[in-house]
Each structure stands twice: as structure tokens, then as C-alpha cells.
Amino acid sequence: xxxxxxxxxxxxxxxxxxxxxxxxxxxxxxxxxxxxxxxxxxxxxxxxxxxxxxxxxxxxxxxxxxxxxxxxxxxxxxxxxxxxxxxxxxxxxxxxxxxxxxxxxxxxxxxxxxxxxxxxxxxxxxxxxxxxxxxxxxxxxxxxxxxxxxxxxxxxxxxxxxxxxxxxxxxxxxxxxxxxxxxxxxxxxxxxxxxxxxxxxxxxxxxxxxxxxxxxxxxxxxxxxxxxxxxxxxxxxxxxxxxxxxxxxxxxxxxxxxxxxxxxxxxxxxxxxxxxxxxxxxxxxxxxxxxxxxxxxxxxxxxxxxxxxxxxxxxxxxxxxxxxxxxxxxxxxxxxxxxxxxxxxxxxxxxxxxxxxxxxxxxxxxxxxxxxxxxxxxxxxxxxxxxxxxxxxxxxxxxxxxxxxxxxxxxxxxxxxxxxxxxxxxxxxxxxxxxxxxxxxxxxxxxxxxxxxxxxxxxxxxxxxxxxxxxxxxxxxxxxxxxxxxxxxxxxxxxxxxxxxxxxxxxxxxxxxxxxxxxxxxxxxxxxxxxxxxxxxxxxxxxxxxxxxxxxxxxxxxxxxxxxxxxxxxxxxxxxxxxxxxxxxxx
Amino acid sequence: xxxxxxxxxxxxxxxxxxxxxxxxxxxxxxxxxxxxxxxxxxxxxxxxxxxxxxxxxxxxxxxxxxxxxxxxxxxxxxxxxxxxxxxxxxxxxxxxxxxxxxxxxxxxxxxxxxxxxxxxxxxxxxxxxxxxxxxxxxxxxxxxxxxxxxxxxxxxxxxxxxxxxxxxxxxxxxxxxxxxxxxxxxxxxxxxxxxxxxxxxxxxxxxxxxxxxxxxxxxxxxxxxxxxxxx
Lengths: 587, 231
What we know:
By secondary structure, chain A is of the alpha/beta class. Chain A contains 16 helices and 22 strands.
């Protein structure tokens, strides 16, 4: 089979917030950029972000980037790299103003400035009182952001490859990355996209769990491709369970509801967060709130006939605030919970939401991996941003509103770095002869496989194992069993069969290829979780309930080949300020 | 539950046909998309687009019992059986429920869907009053699903010439933005017997919009602006 080839300066995989922010800067700089996306850009999952973007604009309450940095370090349970966190929090106001200049329809204050609301874990004066730091467009901030960035890319004439799925990374014998192979979904054709820089912005992988706030497309494609190409995945045990997914449906209800004054109650109508976080209460970090909810449910204070959820009360905010500030929540609540939130509380449950881990990068978006000289050597030609990357700014637990910020700051920074790197490196390296071997073999297997289990069956098995063995609280026996079971599922995934072998818009084939990626992420998550014998941020071990900074203040690196784990130190030294010393985390 | 679904695979089918499916499920709280995905588990050759499953990404627009809508926020229990699913009307079919949206996006792009402001940007945000910002409500929320435009007879007849309700709603989104400076160019761009004026206020767009937006009202406001700049 001969496959066609095209050459670009840069290939960006993924057209969510970070991919499009980067693409915009690179298109404007005159680079020849190809942006691949499985879906039309405005259908990327950034569209579902609700509450806001964190930036210390201080439009409502006094604020500064150093407080934001403190909150982020504390929120990360000290696993975040403090150089990257300083970089992000300092750049936050600038990237938000930039977005406003691009046309973002932010809500406004009476003085015409951007509206900001309180959000979980964002505090004034190093943890004292909640601060209004979340810049919001109603509860549709992600939608407004994604469309604004798409619009600017239309203006900049960015070259989008819509409904193209990247299949595998191309690396030569030096380990340098030279592009990707990709499939056009509409025709089934495979092509090599040869480039001097490859930027992954492929988003999260919440679909490894049965109950997830994530879109169907969140299948960890970038992580799967990186893992198959020998790149380790960092801190994969840290998966965020958002406190407020709609009970049953899993659809997200923004923390902004609690930012606007909503709160959680148990079966007795008690505002239980007061017991777990006396100061921040319902605006404590997400990991803290999710664990509190799971504890309430476990101890028999859950709501409903099965006692398996709690209630999010916001009727006291009044119909006007709900319609004005939380219109999307009202819509979701009516459609998915059959509840008018102005009348009755919304049933909610902690739901898999965000992957703190990912492809290891430095704060310039360059992918770093252990190689010859150290644990963080730059992989030439390879960059990653957004949820698929682990910079790490979120450490063991991400604060709400720091993800949209992450997209903008590191999307822009990776673009700057690529522009600089390409100026020094004007000629592409030649492709290795086996550039397309792996993806063609994967496709050939699907074309010829006659017997086996369906993709849906094996996918269900994977999601069930992850949900049952790697949830909000993690138990040693369940983790050990989980490692065994997920390994068995991975073997089954290599023998799936699709009945539909046709070329044109074959979504069965797409889903089979996605399962390859999901399995890589699920394996990495389970193995990393089973190995980390402490509780930190989103990783809560029943048998090791405390954080252990002596043994475990380090990043995990999971290598798919050999299912092997390695570790590297946390960067505790910021760029210009003093380190925040390790402290017990109390809200 | 009984379903009749439009099937067409250009590789193997000479012509499109309707295929019947029988699914033994309890509609309960389920959405139509949940049911379609259960059908797809039985027959993996059925093709459709899907992503967010909560009505914000706009992927799974289709014609449901004769009316355009999003499968992910359509309650299964409210649909009359057999539930008849077809691709969005008025656009070429790629396969099954998947349509080619090139023309739709071409029209969207033609209205220059981005803020134009040539003043040097200030160091902080450009100010906008609460009331000026409120003008954008009901406009910026569009998810580009295509339900409205493909329900519009004017678009069916002139897909290459008439911008269509989705594109015009976005045209007005920028005309209504106090930060935008391209009002004259935007109006010039629509001053044409087809691009704007083929809207005959049939209001199918308003009827089907899954986000409850009102393109007809936005179109009327653009027409108003056209008139006002002449007198």
C-alpha cells in the first residue's frame, strides 16, 4: 500500500482551546501549519467548559498572581512544578485580556470590566478568604472561548484538516519526532504528515471510566500515540473526580454554581462541607469536596432511595440569578435531572472529569523524557499542550478554572517556542523508511480480523474495571486486582473485531482505533495508582491515608513497554520567587 | 422500541433506503442518542457524528420524526414510534446520518465571523457595559449544529447564495458587538438580493433551534440596520 505524504512546518493534532491558541500564533507568524481534528474544531471538548478562566485581574476583589500561584501549588498538593505554576499565574491576566481583544463575550461588571466569580480553592492572601478570580461568560465560558479562538483562526486562515484522526507518531532512530500518520475519516485514506514540529493538543481521556463528564471523543489519542512511540506518561494516577456530575447522566454541573452561592446537602439536609472544610466550605478543592461526598454516601447519609448521591441546592439564589449567571446549568438540570434548579436541588455525584497527568513537558511545551543525560531531556520536534500534557501545573489536583488558563498560556508559549526552534532548524530530517508501519499494521489487523469480541464489549469491560478499581477512594486489594484485570482487557483489545470493513466514514474503525488509545491510558492510570503508596490530591489510598513527602514527593513516569514505572523529582523552585514550603493542606 | 433509520453507504448501496430496528429497552430517562448507540452496538455499520452528549458541541444534529434536532438532548420517551431518523435535509449525504456540511460552513465563514477592531489594544480589557454585553445574549450561544439552516426552505433553494439563519445570526452577533468596528463592511457584505433578503420569515429556524435561539429576530434587526443607514 502506498500512502501519500504532505510536508508542513508544524502539525498540530487537536483543535480545542490549546491547539487553536497555538495554531493562531503560528499561522500569524507565517508558518505552514496543519491542524488535525477528529471533529469540526468547535465540537472539541473545550466547548463544554462552564465556569470560567482563572486570572488575578482583581476586578471585584483585590488579587495578585502570587496568591493565585500559592492556591495552585496548594491545590496541587505540592506535586505541581513551581516554575511552571509561576509562569502560568503571572501570564494569566495577559492571556485573558488578549482573549477579550479577540472578541470573547465575557460577562461584564457595572464598570464595564470582565465579570469574575468565586471558584473552588481560589483564595485571597495565601488561603484566607475566597476571591473572585474566575473570568466568566455566563456558564458557557468554554463555548465562548472555543468559538472565539476558532473565529480568530478563520481570520488568520489556519489550515484545518477537519475529521482527520491522527494514528501514530513518527520517530526516527535518534528519537526525534518527524510528524504523524493520520486517517481522513470521510474517505478512510491514510496520509503521512511530515513536519519539523509536531504539537499534540489532543485533550483528555475521561472515557476510560463508565461515569464521566467527558465527551465521547475524549479517548486519550495523544497519550496512546506517545506511549506506543516510547514516550512515558507522567502522574497518571491523578484523575480528578468532579464533585458535581448529574446523578445518572454524568453531565457536568459547574463549580460556578457553588461560586454563585449554591451548596451541597446530605440526606439530613445538612450542609456537610462545613465539617470537612470549615473555612472554604463548598469552595474547597475538588478532591476534598469529592472525598467528602463519597464519605457522606459511604456512611449512610446519601440521598435518594439507594442513598447513592447528594443534593446541590441553589434554589435560594433565585430564578433571576440562575437564568442570568447559570443559564446552561438550568438547561442541563431540566433536561438531564428533570429538575428546575430554582425550585428543587440537583442530584449530583462525584464523576470522572480531568486527567492531571499526561505527556511530560516543560513550561515551554517541549516534551521531555528520560534519555541519555537525565530525566527531562527534550524530545526534538515534539511538543504537547492542554489536558494531554503534564507540565505539571496541576500536580495531584487541578483547581477549577485553571484548565482554560492552562490552554491559553501554554498554547501560546508552545507556539512561541516552536517558532524559535524552527528558525534554528530550517530543514526537515528525512522520514525513516518504516514511518507508517505501525498504523498500517493496526489498520490491516482491523481489516482482516474475522473473529473476536466487539469494540463495545471490550470498551465496557475496560470502563467497568477502571470505575470499580480506581475511583475516588482506592483500596490495595482492588488496585492489585485492577492491575491484573486491566492487563487482561488490554489483551482482549488487541483482538477486537469490527464487522464493518468499509472505507467511507467508518466510525466503527475510528472507535476501534480509539480503544487502542484508551487502553494505554487505563493501563498507565491503574499501574501508577497501584504503585503510589500515599494519598495526595486526587489519589486517595485507603491503606495510606496521608501524604508522604519523604517517599512520594516525586512525579511518576509510566512506560508502556514493559509496563514499567520510574520517577523524577518535583520542581520545587519557582522562576523568580521563593518556593512555597510544604504544608498540611487545610481548607 | 421501533426505529426506522436512513441508510446509505456510497461504496455498497445504489440508493438510500430505510432500515428497521427493534430495540428492547425502557425509554425511561434515556435520550435518543443512547438508543442509537445501543443500535450501533448491534450493527456497527451505522454511522453518525457524536461528541459531548449534552447539547453543546452540535455534532449529532439529525432529522428526528421529521423535525431537526440534537439526538443527545431529545427525550426518547417523547418520540412517536417508529422513530424515524434521517440526515439533516438539504445537504449532501456522506453516509447514513452523516451529512457534508461544507456549504453550511462556507456560508458561516462568508460573514467574516470574527471581531474586527483596528484600534491598538489597550493594556487591559476593552470596556463594555452590562447592557451592551446583554445585546450578545441569544446570539453567541449558537453551536453551529446546522439544525436551523437545513430546516430553511430558502437555504434549500439557494444554498450557495443565501447565507442561512445560522450564518446570519452570527453576522448580527458581530454587528451587535459594541467592540466591533466593521459595521459598514458587514452590511455591505449582506447587501444583495440573496445573501440576507432571501429570508422570508418562515421561522422554521426558530422552531427547531435546540438552543432556543431566534435567528429570524436577528435577521430582522440586520434588515433594520440596512434601512436605517439609507434614511
